[in-house]
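Input sequence (571 aa), recorded before submission:
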Amino acid sequence: MYLKEGYQLHTGKYLLHNVIGEGGFSITYKGLWNTDIHGPLGKIATQAPVCIKEYFFKDYCLRNELTNFIETNSANGKLFFDKYKEKIIKEARILSDIHHPNVVKVLEVFKQNNTVYIVMEFISGDSLKQILEQSGVFKEETLLPILFKIGQALQYIHEKNILHLDIKPSNILMDTDNNPKLIDFGISKRYDIHDRQETSTSILAASKGYASIEQYDSEGMQFFSPCPDIYSFGATMYFLLTGEVPTESILRSTKGLARPRELNPEISENTERVILKAMELHASNRYQSVIEMITDLGYNPETEPKTPPKQEDERTELLPSVRHSINQPIDVDEETRIHTEQAKNKKEINRKAVIFSGIGLIAVTITLLILYLNRIFTPHDSNRLPNTAIVQTDTTLFNPADTGQTTPPDDAQPADNPVSASEVDKGNKEKQPEDDPNRQQYEHYYNSALAYFNAKDYSNAASDFRKAVSYMDSPEAKKYISICDSELEAQAIEKRKEMYDFKMEFGNFVIVKKKSNGLMGAVDQKCHERIPCIYLLAEPAGENRAFLREDELFDIYSPSGDTIKTRADSY
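Predicted structure, token format:
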């Protein structure tokens, strides 16, 4: 049923270790990501721990022992397998839209062995359930800071109209910095705007003791509400503070639910009240937002300590390259062994780093000397912007997994110390006299513009460069104007991007939801609205898109943004 330890995926990019979890729809492995660290003298092969989830529909799938391909056990099974094969991709897409420090990160999704694999960051710590089993029930003062962070993560995903639907102690892991991470979005749902029914296919599932009563009825999950997750969050609190799994919601009318303080008298009355309100059987009686719930628990964003940002080399701990063949399985306690080998190799890596740093310092010194001599002995080219790199502004937008900025990389930015107006004129054959009023005004505005430019105040810089040009024609000032205009355009694009939630690509556009009104439309590559954000919903219509209006009519748009037709068609 499982892939063997040492099995390679994605043409050797990932090396599997052991199985760390499984459910009805997937098997989760621990693995290593074979990658390289690039340095000034080349690259060093390294490995980083990852978590790899394989789509495996347990009731209908078999694994071919020779090929490792996933096969179905019946014609009916094939129908179900094919129907839900994209489910794990849906999970990855949902996670790729969630960027929160307390939610697991997705790294890659790919297909192999007639199935789908999703690669996520590996969290080496234990789950809250494991911690309770090892150390007993949590103290309130220990648990509440953890719940505040998970609560903020839940509030974040709810604001994106996403429900997790499987919150429980085993799906909250603590990393090595004692930071909680919410995992396993395998049965999560994304809803469209205005509480409309979820458009993608999902699987009805419920974790006993933690699922709300509406999760047992597909009719109860047609419209978005944070209440199912709030119930599960309260049930998770119940277990962590009492050690008892709550009575299943569908059985509580006959079996009842013990009050938390009956099981653990050390629980405060306020915390018990919050738990019981979160776990009300009727959703309308529960908290209507997670932030309201954790506020009642004592969360205060003004006084909550903020976790200092970690350095990049601490965020991803790369392991030394330790390869294993298929016939050389990894020990059960391989994590301890790997970290031991890592400690042994750290001294060697540090020694190499010192050598590389020394060589790099020598190389930089030689380069600076060459540039200095070149500046002394090379005649000035008045057609080139002196001592300045032309900015390459990247305006490519809206890769769904893109969380970066559109500002240029550091090595493409203009020099920190552009030359002054007097230095610019040193190479001019015909320059105006020093006491010429126009020249004096030119130098005044040019040097003022440079100060703004160094401070990255491109608006004032462009204004003063233009004033300088009005007193004296200057190719250098004109080139700076071009750079400032490019930077200002990039900043304007970033500002416009903040107005929308981005959904999916459509031709040369991206379908978006406008934050100010919650309605949908589409924007171009510079984030100008080309299809106005006045629609309730956007649905595929062949290669086109159908946008639902408030009067229940559809406007059909082509990938070029042209309106094809309007049709009366009930949603």
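Checked by second reader. The CA atoms of residues 258 and 464 lie 73 Å apart.
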